[in-house]
What does this fold into?
Amino acid sequence: MKDVLASFLIIIGLLLVVSSYSSASFIWSLFWPLLLLVPGTYLIIHVLDSHHGSSPWFPLTTGLILVQLGLIFFFHIFSGWAFVSTLAALYPLSFAVAFYGSWRATNKEWLRQSALLWAFLALLSLLVSSGWQRFVLPGLLIVVGFSIITHSRRKRSSH
It folds into this structure.
């Protein structure tokens, strides 16, 4: 596994040198998300292959985040970055998925809470970036207002 990582670092170093002296910068601009994908995949495989007693939450979470962000950036590159604002919720969602995966692997409560927090932020980002806030936020306020009124009326009628 260390040989794979060493080979990856050598190849990236060579690509950086070549791209500074030639038209390889075009190729580099397409494939830079590999800097996220390869180490992330390495971390995930390392956690899955190791059977030691230490807690794998950190390398697993980091690996999942790197792989997801690498895939998101690849999508943006090959779609011409046309959907950046539309897909803004994918960034916090990738953290939610990573913390959820780590929680499932370790059963640590704070990882589940972190996953829920990032999922909430992803939902909030989706609402704000898609323009749904014009309808969802007022609707949410109306529903909460009605529930408060109904709850207070039930309390008064039970006395």
